[in-house]
Specification:
The chain is of the alpha+beta class. 30% of the residues lie in helices and 21% in strands. The chain is built from four helices and ten strands, in the order ααααββββββββββ. It has helices at 8-36, 44-47, 50-55, 63-75; strands at 104-107, 111-112, 115-116, 120-122, 128-131, 136-137, 142-143, 146-151, 157-161, 166-172. The strands form three sheets. A six-stranded antiparallel β-sheet has the order 1-8-9-10-5-4, with no helix packed on it. A two-stranded antiparallel sheet has the order 2-7. Strands 3-6 form a two-stranded antiparallel sheet. It is flat and about 70 Å long.
Length: 174
């Protein structure tokens, strides 16, 4: 009985598909550095207004001198590009939302009278936190009370207000 063994046919097809898959993965990995390359640094002409460019005397440079200056600045760039990340709902993502979450010890700026639905709490460290659960609480009036904001389960945060011994779930807004 000549010809191909009927049991080898499917095996050969699987091997061919596997090799094509490997080839595709290899091509993708080979192209990855091209997509990861940083865009070129903007030139002084792009970064400055015409009046700033003129006031700095850069308009008097010869084209070769201006190119040399732009090349030097691109090679010695020390500016830090900060990108703002947001969730799909448009809420900003903060460092405290990623990785190991740390307890925040701070004070509320101003007078604390409780919370009433969507109360925003501004802290002395510049952060802002908003009440994340429904409900109200009023337990007196406290000036610049000390608070501790602790990470809880499922990414939530709990703010404990020391003078009144009360707590509320919050989310960071700034």
């Amino acid at each position: 009985m000549g010809g191909v063994n009927r049991y080898n046919g499917p095996l050969v097809a699987i091997q061919e598909r596997f090799m094509r898959c490997l080839l595709g993965i290899g091509l993708c990995l080979g192209l990855l550095p091209a997509f990861a390359a940083e865009p070129p640094s903007p030139t002084l002409e792009e970064r400055m207004s015409k009046s700033e460019f003129h006031a700095a005397g850069l308009d008097r440079l010869a084209p070769a001198e201006l190119k040399a200056l732009n090349d030097w600045l691109a090679a010695h760039a020390t500016t830090k590009i900060v990108k703002e990340f947001v969730t799909p709902t448009g809420k900003p993502v903060f460092d405290t939302d990623q990785g190991e979450r740390q307890v925040v010890d701070a004070r509320i700026v101003g007078t604390f009278r409780g919370w009433f639905g969507k109360t925003i709490f501004t802290l002395d460290n510049g952060q802002q936190w908003q009440q994340a659960e429904s409900g109200q609480m009023s337990n007196g009036k406290y000036d610049n009370p000390k608070v501790k904001i602790k990470p809880m389960l499922l990414g939530s945060w709990l703010m404990y207000v020391e003078p009144c011994g009360c707590s509320v779930r919050v989310e960071r807004t700034k």
